[in-house]
Amino acid sequence: MSETIRTTLGGVGDDDPLAELHHLAALRQEIARLEDAQVRRARLRGFSWLAIASALGVSKQAAHKKYGRA
After folding, report:
1. According to the model, what pLDDT value does residue 11 have?
2. Which of 26, 29, 63, 70 is the most buried (most CB within 10 A)?
3. Model-level pTM?
4. Range of the domain at 28
5. For a pLDDT cut of 90, what percent of the chain falls above it?
6. C-beta contacts of 36-40 below 8 A and 24+ residues apart
């Protein structure tokens, strides 16, 4: 687990929930960016949509719909 995520999880219950919500939104964007990059890498290496979908915990159709341009 990254230090950023540990810091956020450790910060639950802090005095400023809005600051934590902003931090979580930024983490969500970063995770989406990283996920997109890894799907592109997997496709370039010849992994099937089924294998990628399984790794993501979604259906093949959902993975292809979201990342089909990759």
Report:
1. 57
2. 63
3. 0.74
4. 3-67
5. 76
6. 36/67, 36/70, 39/63, 39/67, 39/70, 40/67, 40/70
